[in-house]
Amino acid sequence: MTMQTVQFELPMTLLERARVWAIDEARELVTSLLENYVHELERDQRRQAYETYYDTRSAGEEAEELSLLADFTFADAEITV
Questions:
Q1: Which partner from 3, 14, 50, 66 sits 20 to 30 angstroms from 77, CA to CA?
Q2: Weakest-pLDDT range from 3-7, 42-46, 59-63, 75-79
Q3: What is the C-alpha separation between 36 and 18, in angstroms, rounded?
Q4: Roughly what angle, to the nearest 10 degrees, separates helices 24-56 and 12-19?
Q5: What is the pLDDT of residues 6-29, one digit of tens each?
Q6: pLDDT at site 77
Q7: 68: nearest Cα among 76, 78, 80, 56
Q8: Better-predicted residue by pLDDT, 42 or 76
Q9: Handedness of CA 59, 61, 66, 71 (dihedral sign)
Q10: Proportion of the chain above pLDDT 90, given as a percent
Q11: Is 10 left (phi over 0), alpha (psi -120 to 50) or beta?
Q12: Mean pLDDT of the chain
């Protein structure tokens, strides 16, 4: 399994709350909440990048993509059967 490092900025007050000495379960909860927050930010950035791509692609790129998708229609039908 490959480790991935994510860097993000949080308000100082939130970091101070996360640094409070707490029982392991509370620390795990804070960590989980922070990870969920970061994943949500990443999903939003990815969604925006896809929207930008689809809004700015040329007609030729769109036609090429549709052609590639059509090539896989048969294989997709086999999987859903």
A1: 50
A2: 3-7
A3: 15
A4: 150
A5: 676 777 777 676 665 556 667 788
A6: 74
A7: 76
A8: 42
A9: positive
A10: 32
A11: beta
A12: 81
* Residue at 23: amino acid letter: I
SS (HEC) of the chain:
CCCCCCCCCCCHHHHHHHHCCCCHHHHHHHHHHHHHHHHHHHHHHHHHHHHHHHHHCCHHHHHHHHHHHHHCHHHHHHHHC
What are the residues whose beta carbons fall under 8 Å from the beta carbon of 30, sequence distance 6 or more?
Answer: 17, 18, 22
Query: Which of 39, 38, 15, 18 has the alpha carbon at shortest distance from 27?
Result: 18
Q: How many residues in total does the chain contain?
A: 81
Q: Where do we find the tokens 């909440």?
A: 33
